[in-house]
Amino acid sequence: SVQRESQTYASVTFQNYYFRVNSDFFFPIGWYGGRGGDLANIRAAGANVVLNYWNGIIDDYLPVGSRIYDASHYVMALQSYLDDAWAESLRVFVHLPTHDISGSALINNSFIQTVVGSSIQNHPALLGWYQADEPEQNYTPAIDSTFLINRYNTIKGADINHPVLVVFANSKDFADGFPESSLPRFYDVLMAD
Question: Which of 21, 23, 44, 86 is at a distance of 20 to 30 A from 10, taking alpha carbons?
Answer without folding.
Answer: 44
